[in-house]
Amino acid sequence: MGYKVVVVGATGNVGREMLNILAERQFPVDEIAALASRRSLGTEVSFGDKTLTTKDLEQFDFTGWDMALFAIGSDATKQYAPIAAKAGCVVIDNSSLYRYDADVPLIVPEVNPEAVHGYAKKNIIANPNCSTAQMVVALKPLHDRAKVKRVVVSTYQSVSGSGKEAMDELWNQTKGMYVPGQEVAPTVYPKQIAFNVIPHIDVFLDDGQTKEEWKMVAETKKIVDKSIKLTATCVRVPVFVGHAEAINIEFEDFLDEDEARDILRQAPGVLVVDKREAGGYVTPVECVGDYATFVSRIRQDSTIDNGLNLWCVSDNLRKGAALNAVQIAELLGREVLKKG
User: Fold this and answer.
1) Model's pTM, two decimal places?
2) Distance (Å, rounded) from C-alpha 66 to C-alpha 72?
3) In the annotation, is 117 catalytic?
4) How far, in Å, CA of 181 to CA of 191, rounded?
5) Which of 89, 243, 287, 312 is catalytic?
6) Number of domains in the chain
7) In the chain, at which end, N or C, are there fewer CB atoms within 10 A of the end residue's CB?
8) Is 243 part of the annotated catalytic residue set?
9) 155 lies in which domain range?
10) Are residues 19 and 87 in the same domain?
11) Which of 130, 234, 287, 312 is catalytic?
12) Which pLDDT tens digit goes with each residue over 287-332?
């Protein structure tokens, strides 16, 4: 016996990936519905070897459905997630709306699977920010061994994190660089993204952080350990898919780089590629379409007593969004609903 599953926002980048991954991982689905806004009503999307026609989110009745994977913005989620939850359908939400709600678990299944049992307070589970998700997969096994004290992270985030319009802007600006008179002015981003980097993701806060940077701090504390101190600089780079992060970690106890490498090799969701030679590391282009969080460049930081540096890369549309949501659905089914 399988589950009745709804994918909300099925025509977007993340929604389509959710459908792809549900099919790839052979999630036990008895019935599936693809929902979209009225402007996308009737659009066809793929689910394995099947083609689904999108239904109207506004008119959909969630009664009798087991779980709904939401991949729409916070405003629409605020309107429709409580409706689904009240109807008895567990919401797994990819927006930022519920991440910091004390009554809603924020889950990365490789890190804090036990938190899934907290879903019942609101019938909602939150999916973390893309940059946080891949980082905590690498941090948690090291934290269990030596306890992470402080993290300094710089992110190099692809444009797909901003949606299809941002991907189109990068593509059109890149083409325009080679055709005189075809230059494309920025509209999604405040500055040109082609052949450039922008140290600005989300809005600026009063203390000088961007909200993306604040999210990494708040979410790491909620998912891993509230005692961890973290500072982030989040940068948008001219890459279509795949986020990279340079992570500097200070531990309470000494952790040798060789032991760290062995720990990460055994960690769920992590794939270590760490050869000290040209090309002996993973870049964003190579991680696209993969489930793993790749870790490379593991090395001691000699400037502090208990420090390590590492390079972390993952497909942000997968582990940073759709894959993590499907893994939460698998966890929910396995640990709570127990139908599949």
Assistant:
1) 0.95
2) 19
3) no
4) 18
5) 243
6) 2
7) N
8) yes
9) 131-316
10) yes
11) 130
12) 999 999 999 999 999 999 999 999 999 999 999 999 999 999 999 9
